[in-house]
Design a protein that fits this description.
mainly beta, four-stranded antiparallel sheet, about 120 residues, seven-stranded mixed sheet
């Protein structure tokens, strides 16, 4: 089992930036796909970005393209989500997840963090 802990959320004005971190521990995660998802109140969980563990493949949801960047740390046990040009509609709880398949579907990710709140004010 992989344990995931997110951090870096907070309150930011529209147009601002935040960097989320996801620290992984437990089983080796060298073969895992890491994903970022978000969920706003009353809405379904939405795929934001994903990265394979070698870092040479990344993919993004439509809402993140051109504004967000997913990356991994040099220690290979941390994944980041750099969010720029934030909009009020980006307000949500952001989750880090680990899975085995390169997919945007939450059902294919077996390990999840507790989430971190991102609030963007207008």
């Amino acid at each position: 089992q992989v344990q995931l802990v997110e951090s870096g959320g907070g309150l930011v004005q529209a147009g601002g930036s935040l960097r989320l971190s996801c620290a992984a521990s437990g089983r080796t995660i060298s073969s895992y796909i890491m994903g970022w998802f978000r969920q706003a109140p009353g809405k379904e969980r939405e795929f934001v970005a994903g990265i394979n563990w070698s870092g040479d493949r990344t993919y993004y949801g439509d809402s993140a393209k051109g504004r967000f960047t997913v990356s991994r740390g040099n220690a290979k046990n941390t994944v980041y989500l750099q969010m720029n040009s934030l909009k009020p509609e980006d307000t949500a709880v952001y989750y880090c997840a680990a899975g085995r398949v390169l997919t945007t579907s939450p059902s294919h990710f077996g390990s999840w963090g507790q989430g971190t709140q991102v609030t963007v004010s207008s």
